[in-house]
Amino acid sequence: MEKGPDAFRTISEVADDLDLPQHVLRFWETRFAQIKPMKRGGGRRYYRPDDVDLLRGIRHLLYGEGYTIRGVQQILKDQGLRYVQTIGRSAETDPARLRDINFDKQALEADAANMSVSAGARGGVVNFAPPPPRQRVEPEMPRTLEPRIVEVPRPQPVVQPQSYEDDGPAIPFRKFAPVPAPEHDEPRIQARAPQEDRYEPRVVAEERYEPRAVEPQMRAPVARAPMQEAPGSLRLPAEAVRLLKATLYELGECKRMLDASRKAG
User: Which pTM does this prediction carry?
Assistant: First the structure.
């Protein structure tokens, strides 16, 4: 189904119509701000009829007239967009004009081999001819070297001549006298296996504590001769004497209370 003259065209249709690769059309969008195709989801481009005429005019100026990219940019700046579109329409209506263009394919292929696209844009001359098809070079598979089997001769056993001499010790040694046995047998101590000490708990009868009544033993006071202080002995101060008396009194009271509790128990 053929499209009408006013229908939008995809980039593949425009590339087939102008006999140009698609990457050349994308590159021209980066060099000519006047090329503005409609873009949809997924980066798909749709070219209007005016866009196709502009591309056809740029192609004619580059390949037919021999202008550089900078030259075509200057024409678009000075003459305007309509001028280049008119050139594209006239080239479409007069196909013979395009057939008269002499494309030096050998020169274009040499330029394409020695100059990248970005370098040509900076230098002012770009080769937009499709590159020659590259031959697919298949990677060379590494050769598998078969192991080389080398036969090694087996060593022959060495036969030594028999010797008919006496088989004696290879190393001479001194003869030692036998050690005499001891006259008395020494007592042998036989180690006994250690016996495990068993722990047996001892049953101790529980003793019940019963307080015993202790009768106070009253001793008759013994008359003692008064102590005579030796000359030069130290006397306790009055405060120390008072504390000692109080302590003795408290001890006596404690003893009396203990005796009373034992009697009551």
Answer: 0.37
